[in-house]
Amino acid sequence: MDAEQLRENAHKMVDFIADYYKSLESYPVLSQVQPGYLRELLPDSAPDRPESLQDVLDDIRQKIIPGITHWQSPNYYAYYPSNSSTAGFLGEMLSAAFNIVGFSWVSCPAATELEVIVLDWLAKMLKLPDQFLSSGQGGGVIQGTASESVLVVLLAARDKILRKSGKRSLEKLVVYASDQTHSCMQKACQIAGIYTENLRLLKADQNSNYALTPDAVSEAISSDLSEGLIPFFLCATIGTTSSAAVDPLSALGKISKANDMWFHVDAAYAGSACICPEYNHHLDGVEEADSFGMNAHKWFLTNFDCSALWVKDRSALIQSLSTNPEFLRNKASQEHTVVDFKDWQVPLGRRFRSLKLWMVLRLYGLENLQHYIRNHIKLAEEFEQLVNSDSRFEVVTPRTFSLVCFRLLPQPDHQDDGYKLNYDLLDAVNSSGKIFLSHTVLSGKFVLRFAVGAPLTEETHIKAAWEVLQDQATIILAEI
Predict the structure, then answer these.
(1) Among 291, 312, 300, which residue's Cα sits nearest to residue 272?
(2) What is the CA radius of gyration of the chain?
(3) Phi, psi (deg, nearest 5) at residue 99
């Protein structure tokens, strides 16, 4: 494809994407297809001869789009958001065009240096301690997801403690987190060789608004020490997956320090809100942390994937993850004058992801990003008020950011405490295609999660979503 063919085909693709966004609200938010639908629509082998772009686009329109759950729809309220934006999209285009593999500085100096600079910018927006900046012993790196961030810091912490206690003590290492912590913590332990029985997922309940309590951590550590085990890693969360709970960083950080443990803070979702001064207090105590992560691809208008991770001591990562085969040796790396991000992550290869974050920060600016976050929180507050205005519903746990956890109240003598009632409500609203919600279970209750965060969501969409929920609730209650 020469430059003119690229220009022609790229224009067609941009037109297609623009038309998709223009008609986004006309699609069912949750895909309504059945498993295996696509195999019936596509040939069982690749074509022998090239086909036209127009034919491919026609197939995307007719066969692929029906199987897409539309995360960018203004009526998408499930899980947590996965933001797209013009700025992020343009950055992705550039990254795809350059198509570099930036494993080391010499493989693409601009990719490495821009990543260092942009993560310093973002750290300053979050008011993170100076120890997390590249000017000291720490610094930031873009991982694919928060799951990768948790894994690499767990590996660094594991190797750090094993150098001190001996390799044979692996079976004694213990990890602590709330039972509200993302499941990536469990997977990271499985990969890192931490014994399953040595992962302490400590119970958090409604008494603490589902935050991890320092007393629970202290008691667990004390018990493990008495058994001759080695506490070495504690994970706190700012904005848990189920309910957006906020763990008390200061108290947990002090416990970690007293026990010589690695303290990681996972702010994958709610970290974005902390660029607003009125929400930054949720990071009080982050100065105690050894590592901190947030997902710019969730609620920060940066197309997936872009998970920012900062560490206070980059050498801990490098000691765990560095390899230095002959074919990668070069003068800059050998002289230790550059950063080689291959030593900060699991894979060797990496994309030019900092481009899209850089473009988001430049084309929006801090003030517009703060306005964007505040607007979603305001819309969530409005939805919360609507729930509270209908006596058939209840808000299950206090709203902190842009997630509302609520449920349809069962009759007092209901056997399963409204589990089936709310399951049926969720199924009904999602099957309608008008909105898409997800759920969780809190203190044994089946709870609906309404996460505001899609870039195109406005007040009219919030009101329309509430009408869908009310209408379906009326139908379900009438059938009881």
Answers:
(1) 300
(2) 24
(3) 50, 45
d(CA 397, CA 239): 13
105 token code pair: 């500085």
CATH class of 93-360: alpha beta
Geometric angle at alpha carbon 436, from 201 and 68, rounded to 5°: 100
Q: Provide the strand spans (E) within 217-327.
A: 230-237, 262-266, 291-295, 307-311
Q: How far apart are the C-alpha atoms of 278 and 378, rounded to whole Å?
A: 13
Q: Are 310 and 291 within 8 A, CB to CB?
A: yes
How does pLDDT run along the chain (480 residues), one tens digit per residue?
Answer: 789 999 999 999 999 999 999 999 999 999 999 999 999 999 999 999 999 999 999 999 999 999 999 999 999 999 999 999 999 999 999 999 999 999 998 899 999 999 999 999 999 999 999 999 999 999 999 999 999 999 999 999 999 999 999 989 999 999 999 999 999 999 999 999 999 999 999 999 999 999 999 999 999 999 999 999 999 999 999 999 999 999 999 999 999 999 999 999 999 999 999 999 999 999 999 999 999 999 999 999 999 999 999 999 999 999 999 998 889 899 888 888 999 999 999 999 999 999 999 999 999 999 999 999 999 999 999 999 999 999 999 999 999 999 999 999 998 877 788 999 999 999 999 999 999 999 999 999 999 999 999 999 999 999 999 999 999 999 999 887
Q: 120 and 142 in contact (C-beta within 8 Å)? A: no
User: CA-to-CA distance for 154 and 194, rounded, in angstroms?
Assistant: 10
User: Which has the closest alpha carbon to 149: 25, 249, 265, 24?
Assistant: 265
Asked whether the beta carbons of 306 and 280 are under 8 A apart, the reply is no
Instruction: Tell me 202's DSSP state.
Output: E
For the sheet with 445-451, list strands across it. 393-397, 403-408, 445-451, 438-442
pTM for this prediction: 0.94
Instruction: Give the tokens for residue 103.
Output: 């494993």
